[in-house]
């Protein structure tokens, strides 16, 4: 017997990052495949679908909607309800967007997809060898965005009218480039050329660049979000020359190579592979393989990990191919800048600023409207992604704020910190954290910060009701936030630096995986008193002094200090950040008092001359520019200096502490902890005198520096664990209490696993970062959540 | 020095000290108010309370400082100073010998500047209510017609000049106050600049701004001007004169020389074509021997954003030079 199938209708609403990623054509293709009728449209709330068919086909449609979603889509919610009325006549169609306030922003820039990567290598394709190939699943986004809606006329591609062939692809829902705004081809799109080194204008610029690189020269390569400086990573002379020309810069150089080459040099775990090959394509810090060929040490002085990334634009793919054809394997691709200035983005700026470093410039005529650095991630001992710099590929994807009621909070703009600055727009239960912008004292970075603030507010049609700033009055971001609050009438809320770190870790831990597949969501109890262990360089404390090694107890509403590192003078204020010996002197002085110089004998070789030391002594005695600070970062600097790691001067932030971590790593599993003491009533305070006594004794006894470094790391972890135990006892906290870990020192991958293990053994539940960095790059997220919650409740 | 009972004797003694050291026809009139001849031109008036610890420092003391500070403020108006007043607040028990020394130095500074201290006042406060001695000086001066010194006249493309090295005064004070010895003695630059300024104004009446970078240093003064004018000012770090020993002391102390006070320096903002002639004039004076062009006024800031002070650094970067907010608590570490 034949049954006529029963036709019913469904109205389906899809929310998440579902616009500008090819979601409507995906819906269209699935519906046509299944022979369904109906329509799909974008609106202010996401994607709206009405579809008619028989029951099994509708079920298959609902499943494939999510399972086969385009690579850049992030579906956060699907709601389905019966549709009214009869099925429309004719085939399934894509209809024009139906209005509504725009709340979706734009998706992050994405690495070249496999289809595009194959296409540019296929001699039969019209985009063969074309460096600006992209499609709906890949290519530039934030880097070329100027305004909303996301549409070619408002991007840096506006200057390139589509040719007929591209226009046809753009208009065809069956094509991978349907509504791909940056669509381009050799006939209509951006062009590439080489300048300098007597470049032959008729030669293929990629081949000519590869020739130069293979010959040991340095080329500045205009990329997606800024310039790179490229050279042959296996050519020690080229690497040394690049270091010399960049001046005062000992930062590790990022390396680019195809996956197979990366795997030949580095240990690539499944999680690392997932991160490398994700559309975000970040730099991933990886340890070398034991059997790997030796890389020039100058690539990453005193580091035991290298930063690797895969080619992520067609230009990179073509360049790596051409370099490989000349016997090359690994390219240095370090950011194109002078010392630690922001990356150059503009052709003229490159001609002015990079020709002193590079022998030639590989340029193109697609403007980089918005600077976007390469993102950097590491992998922790559990294999989870630990973000270090969140920029290209991640920003500006919204992060869900999983606090009950967050959807009702007022629109809040958080201004972030001073170094590694980011800002955050919070609305409708989602937080958009800007890309890493950098050190606001750099004029370029400050200009970027202002420009990005304008762009993001425009992209999101965002009018802040609340503006959150750090408690430090002198942060340029604080000053800007105050001015903006005055100008807009928004409510200004000051947020304690370490409270913001703590809440950032809590919100981050509760985030569904957005950064990488390996990240795991943790349930967070928002009502339970939560501990925070916040270890960083420094931030303004609630009492007007500088903090940096803190144990807080509280939650969204506020947090009180229940433990701390002993305050130690910052000898010479921020000079203590640049010169580790200052922290060694201050710590030894704090530990041993007037007798410190006698005790310091084993490390005397790492201290400056007598004149400087007596000046230091006079500064400490008189308190001249010696603000006390409970900094954890400066403690690590002091220990590094004691072992002779960059005691006189570092060239970039945390250089000495990172070298100390690398030194400790081989011994991390086998060493014991130095003792510490906890004193102070009512505020438990960790004093470091016993640690220093033991450390100096080990140095005098000739213990291997790596072992000393490991014992130091264990000592700090044990001290924190003891202080946490003391806080649990003092405040009657039950087992299962949450403890949030944040602050830049929590990126130390020797310290954190030990600490995590100790806290776990005490029955605590550890909440850690997975989407935003533990350093000040994550601060804005915490500020936004605290201020929005406060403004909502008071 | 006693407060209260011994008032009359003390007052007489003070009068003798001040009368002796400050002697000039206006003061010698002996009235409560000095009567000055009618000046030609517009009058500028300025006042400054001087509080400094220690009272005596390498290169000067509170007496000479209180004369130089006010004369320089008069000169910042493009004016020629014609008279000063001085008011003293003296702490009970302050040694008369010290007061005598300060008054002598003050009188010498005024005489050497050619400006009389025309009138004055003295109060003695209880022990613990003062820090030795405070001196408030007021100055009046006369501005030639056609001179209009004002931050509102700052324009894109103008040159920023500085009459000499930065940081000398603040570091000299700090080294004495904290017992920090920086090897070769660093002296305060405390000096009167009105003669140099008079020559500058005579040659270039169209100078836009004259300003002495005292408390808060070059950065506070130039930030104020950037903000008031709504223009970005860009300094060139390599061009800013600084004594090696001051630079060394700042490095050791972790202090930014741009934040350190000066007491004998003048910032001048002028049209590009006036820069070289003015530098030549400045360098002809002992107070301007190290004069240099240190920067340029840039574009007017975008509407809604304040003017900024920036600096091209020695390594070729560009950094924001911010105000010093209250105490110098590090932002980054
Ligand atoms: Fe921090
Ligand atoms: Mg004044
Ligand atoms: Zn693609
Ligand atoms: Zn085309």
UniProtKB/TrEMBL annotation, chain A:
It catalyses: C-terminal L-cysteinyl-[HypE protein] + carbamoyl phosphate + ATP + H2O = C-terminal S-carboxamide-L-cysteinyl-[HypE protein] + AMP + phosphate + diphosphate + H(+); an acyl phosphate + H2O = a carboxylate + phosphate + H(+). Residues 9-96 form the Acylphosphatase-like domain. Pathway: Protein modification; [NiFe] hydrogenase maturation. Its EC number is 6.2.-.-. Keywords: Hydrolase, Ligase, Metal-binding, Zinc, Zinc-finger. Pfam families: Acylphosphatase, HypF_C, HypF_C_2, Sua5_yciO_yrdC, zf-HYPF. PROSITE patterns: ACYLPHOSPHATASE_1, ACYLPHOSPHATASE_3, YRDC. InterPro entries: Acylphosphatase-like_dom, Acylphosphatase-like_dom_sf, Acylphosphatase_CS, Carbamoyltrans_HypF-like, Carbamoyltransferase_HypF, DHBP_synth_RibB-like_a/b_dom, HypF_C, HypF_C_2. The keyword Protein transport does not apply. The active site is at residues 24, 42. Residues 203-393 form the YrdC-like domain. Belongs to the carbamoyltransferase HypF family. Involved in the maturation of [NiFe] hydrogenases. Along with HypE, it catalyzes the synthesis of the CN ligands of the active site iron of [NiFe]-hydrogenases. HypF functions as a carbamoyl transferase using carbamoylphosphate as a substrate and transferring the carboxamido moiety in an ATP-dependent reaction to the thiolate of the C-terminal cysteine of HypE yielding a protein-S-carboxamide. NCBIfam families: hypF. This is Carbamoyltransferase HypF. The gene is hypF.
């Amino acid at each position: 017997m034949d049954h006529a199938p029963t036709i019913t209708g469904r109205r389906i609403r899809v929310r998440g990052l579902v616009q500008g990623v090819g979601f409507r054509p995906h819906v269209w293709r699935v519906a046509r495949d299944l022979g369904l009728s109906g329509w799909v449209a974008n609106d202010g709330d996401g994607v709206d679908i009405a579809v008619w068919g028989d029951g099994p086909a509708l079920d298959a449609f609902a499943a494939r909607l999510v399972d086969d979603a385009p690579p850049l889509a992030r579906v956060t919610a699907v709601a389905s309800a019966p549709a009214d009325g009869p099925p429309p006549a004719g085939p399934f169609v894509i209809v024009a967007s139906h209005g509504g306030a725009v709340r979706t922003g734009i998706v992050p820039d994405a690495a070249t997809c496999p289809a595009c990567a194959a296409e540019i290598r296929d001699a039969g394709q019209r985009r063969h060898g074309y460096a600006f190939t992209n499609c709906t699943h890949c290519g530039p986004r934030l880097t070329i965005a100027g305004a909303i809606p996301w549409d070619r006329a408002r991007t840096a591609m506006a200057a390139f009218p589509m040719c007929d062939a591209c226009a046809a692809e753009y208009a065809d829902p069956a094509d991978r480039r349907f509504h791909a705004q940056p669509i381009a081809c050799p006939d209509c799109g951006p062009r590439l050329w080489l300048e300098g080194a007597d470049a032959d204008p008729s030669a293929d610029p990629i081949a000519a660049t590869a020739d130069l690189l293979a010959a040991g020269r340095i080329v500045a390569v205009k990329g997606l979000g800024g310039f790179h400086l490229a050279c042959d990573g296996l050519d020690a002379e080229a690497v040394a020359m690049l270091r010399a020309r960049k001046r005062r810069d000992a930062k590790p150089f990022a390396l680019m190579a195809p996956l197979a080459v990366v795997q030949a040099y580095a240990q690539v775990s499944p999680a690392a592979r997932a991160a490398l090959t994700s559309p975000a394509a970040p730099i991933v810090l990886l340890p070398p393989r034991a059997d790997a060929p030796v890389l020039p040490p100058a690539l990453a002085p005193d580091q035991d990990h290298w930063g690797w990334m895969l080619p992520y634009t067609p230009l990179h793919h073509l360049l790596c191919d051409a370099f490989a054809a000349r016997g090359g394997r690994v390219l240095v691709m370090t950011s194109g800048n002078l010392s630690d200035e922001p990356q150059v983005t503009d052709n003229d700026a490159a001609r002015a600023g990079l020709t002193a470093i590079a022998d030639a410039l590989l340029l193109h005529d697609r403007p980089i409207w918005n600077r976007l650095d390469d993102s950097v991630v590491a992998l922790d001992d559990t294999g989870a992604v630990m973000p270090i710099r969140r920029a290209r590929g991640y920003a500006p994807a919204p992060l869900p704020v999983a606090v009950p009621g967050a959807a009702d909070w007022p629109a809040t703009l958080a201004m972030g910190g001073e170094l590694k600055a980011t800002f955050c727009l919070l609305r409708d239960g989602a937080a958009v954290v800007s890309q890493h912008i950098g050190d606001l004292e750099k004029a370029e970075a400050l200009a970027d910060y202002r420009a990005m603030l304008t762009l993001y507010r425009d992209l999101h049609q965002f009018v802040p009701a609340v503006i959150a700033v750090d408690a430090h009055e002198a942060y340029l971001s604080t000053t800007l936030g105050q001015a903006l609050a005055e100008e807009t009438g928004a409510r200004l809320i000051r947020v304690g630096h370490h409270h913001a770190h703590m809440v950032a870790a809590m919100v981050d831990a509760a985030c569904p995986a957005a950064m990488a597949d390996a990240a795991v969501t943790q349930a967070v109890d928002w009502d339970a008193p939560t501990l925070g262990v916040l270890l960083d360089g420094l931030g303004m404390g609630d009492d007007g002094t500088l903090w940096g090694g803190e144990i807080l107890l509280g939650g969204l509403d506020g947090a009180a200090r229940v433990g701390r590192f002993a305050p130690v003078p910052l000898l010479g204020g921020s000079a203590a950040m640049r010169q580790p010996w200052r922290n060694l002197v201050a710590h030894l002085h704090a530990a041993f008092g007037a007798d410190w110089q006698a005790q310091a004998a084993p490390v005397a070789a790492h201290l400056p001359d007598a004149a400087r030391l007596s000046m230091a002594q006079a500064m400490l005695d008189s308190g001249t520019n010696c603000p006390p600070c409970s900094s954890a970062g400066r403690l690590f600097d002091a220990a590094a200096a004691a072992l002779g790691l960059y005691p006189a001067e570092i060239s970039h932030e945390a250089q000495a502490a990172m070298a100390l971590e690398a030194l400790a790593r081989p011994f991390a599993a086998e060493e014991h902890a130095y003792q510490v003491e906890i004193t102070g009533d009512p505020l438990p305070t960790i004093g470091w005198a016993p640690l220093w006594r033991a450390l100096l004794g080990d140095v005098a006894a000739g213990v291997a520096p790596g072992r000393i470094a490991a014992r130091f790391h264990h000592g700090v972890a044990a001290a924190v664990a003891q202080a946490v135990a003391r806080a649990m006892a003092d405040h009657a906290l039950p087992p299962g209490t949450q403890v949030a870990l944040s602050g830049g020192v929590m990126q130390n991958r020797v310290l954190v696993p030990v600490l995590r293990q100790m806290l776990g053994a005490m029955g605590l539940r550890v909440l850690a970062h997975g989407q935003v960095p533990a350093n000040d790059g994550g601060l804005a997220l915490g500020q936004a959540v605290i201020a929005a919650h406060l403004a909502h409740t008071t | 020095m006693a407060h209260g009972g011994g008032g009359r004797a003390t007052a007489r003694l003070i009068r003798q000290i001040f009368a002796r050291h400050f002697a000039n026809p206006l003061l010698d009139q002996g009235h409560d108010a000095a009567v000055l001849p009618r000046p030609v031109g517009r009058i500028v008036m300025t006042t400054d309370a001087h509080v400094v610890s220690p009272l005596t420092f390498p290169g000067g003391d509170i007496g000479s400082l209180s004369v130089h500070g006010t004369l320089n403020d008069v000169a910042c108006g493009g004016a020629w100073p014609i008279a000063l007043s001085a008011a003293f607040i003296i702490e009970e028990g302050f040694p008369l010998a010290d007061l005598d020394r300060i008054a002598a130095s003050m009188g010498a500074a005024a005489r050497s500047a050619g400006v009389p201290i025309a009138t004055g006042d003295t109060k003695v406060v209880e022990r613990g209510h003062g820090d030795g001695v405070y001196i408030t000086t007021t100055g009046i001066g006369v501005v030639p017609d056609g001179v209009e010194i004002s931050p509102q006249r700052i324009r894109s493309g103008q040159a920023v000049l500085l009459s000499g090295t930065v940081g000398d005064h603040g570091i000299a004070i700090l080294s004495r106050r904290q017992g920090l010895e920086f090897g070769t003695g660093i002296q305060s630059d405390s000096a009167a600049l009105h003669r140099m300024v008079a020559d500058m104004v005579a040659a270039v009446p169209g100078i836009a701004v004259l300003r002495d970078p005292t408390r808060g240093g070059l950065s506070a003064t130039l930030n104020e001007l950037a903000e008031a004018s709504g223009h970005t000012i860009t300094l060139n770090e390599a061009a800013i004169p600084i004594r090696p020993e001051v630079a060394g002391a700042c490095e050791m102390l972790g202090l930014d020389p741009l934040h350190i006070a000066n007491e004998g320096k003048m910032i001048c903002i002028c049209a590009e074509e006036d820069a070289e002639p003015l530098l030549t004039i400045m360098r002809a004076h002992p107070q301007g021997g190290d004069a240099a062009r240190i920067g340029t006024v840039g574009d007017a800031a975008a509407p809604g954003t304040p003017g900024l002070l920036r600096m091209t650094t020695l390594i070729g970067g560009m950094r924001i030079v911010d105000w010093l907010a209250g105490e110098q608590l590090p932002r980054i570490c």
